[in-house]
Amino acid sequence: MNVMSVLNLRLRKLGSLEEYTISLSRSLTQQGGQSTLVFKDFPPTAFRSQYTEAGAILDVKPFAPFSWESAVALLALARRYKPDVVHFHFVNLLSLDVLVACMSRVQVVFSEHASDVAKKRSPIRWQLLRLCKRSFSSMVDQVIAPSHYVNARLVREGVSARRVTTIHNGVNFAKFKDASVGEYPHQARDRTR
């Protein structure tokens, strides 16, 4: 399986999402698959090797919801890497990137990471949003929410409840194995040096 994760991010640290993408890459590589990670910029050289050692292919593209440049760049990457699945993270569901991926005959997964604050909209704008989200999400194979709150918000905004799955964020407990109560993981690492 060839998975292309499209992440509208500039990596600055090794946090939970970075750990997830490294772990995903390692797992896909061990199973004979391929992980392609597409970011705004290449990861900093300080931890780029962790990605390459996990077997990830790293690439970059511009990101803008309604930009043809962004969508054409994604299409070129899809042609180059030939993914079976394109998984969007931190990308607007109502974007040309999502539209292009859906038209590329690959499985499309969309993860909504934002809990979002309810915005005041006129009844016409609210209906337009629901119509657009219903249309775009109907082309996506799976929508992933990190909480029941986000799941309910997506459904309220027009995404079909059958397409939304809640997968809660995980915690890497190994980071805390040697930490004492009240100590952050980096403090435990510093103590063991």
Relative helix content: 40-55%
- Encode the helix/strand succession as letters: EHEHEHEHEHEHEH
CATH topology-level fold name? Rossmann fold
Number of domains: 1
Structural overview:
The radius of gyration is 18 Å and the shape is globular. The relative contact order is 0.12. The chain has seven helices and seven strands, in the order E-H-E-H-E-H-E-H-E-H-E-H-E-H. The chain has a single domain (2-192), classed as Rossmann fold (3-Layer(aba) Sandwich), CATH 3.40.50. With 193 residues, the protein is of the alpha/beta class. A seven-stranded parallel beta sheet has the order 3-2-1-4-5-6-7, with helices on both faces. The mean pLDDT is 88. Helix 3 packs parallel to helix 4. Helix content is 41%, strand content 18%.
Topology (SSEs and partners):
Blueprint lengths: L1 E6 L8 H15 L3 E6 L5 H9 L2 E5 L7 H14 L3 E5 L6 H7 L4 E5 L11 H17 L2 E4 L2 H9 L7 E3 L18 H8 L1
Parallel strand pairs: 1-2, 1-4, 2-3, 4-5, 5-6, 6-7
Helix pairs in contact: 3-4
Overview features:
about 190 residues, alpha/beta, Rossmann fold, 7-stranded parallel sheet, 7 strands, about 40% helix, globular
What would you say about this model in short?
The protein is α/β, with parallel strands linked by helices and 193 residues long. It contains seven helices and seven strands. It has a single domain (2-192), classed as Rossmann fold.
